[in-house]
Here is the input.
Amino acid sequence: MQSSSQYPLDDVDRRILSALQRDSTLSVQALADIAGMSPSPCWRRVRALREAGVIRAEVALLDRRKLGMPVLAYIHLSLIDHSEATIRKLDDFTRAQDRIVECATITGADDYMIKVMARDPEDLERFLMRDLLALGVVRSSTTHFVLRQTKYTTAVPLD
Here is the structure.
């Protein structure tokens, strides 16, 4: 159902999506009020956006600090080679690790950038040494600790 082509949004869709990005628990009535329409057509719009894959999921965003994961780091990785087996091994590893919250292949001197949560710097070091580097596919890694986040959002710009 999900297509890589752009979904044609109108102003009503944008109002609905903006509201849902702020609070996905809104009732259909509240969402309809925000969108300036009645509940039934609003519900159909939301259903169409879900079926088209525009709305991929509705999740609860948790406070990592309150849950004992205050350390956040970006780790740049350079692989030992670019063989299919090496890439598959790292990709499988990153998908299986809950503490890795983002992973992307990147351009430049490094091959990957991962975003990792940890309990403390020692916890992150254990993860790096015992898990990540023990895979045997990483040539080098550079860790950047996040000192302060000035912005964090999951919202996609809709204008």
Summary: The CA atoms of residues 18 and 157 lie 9 Å apart. The chain has two domains: 11-51, 71-145.
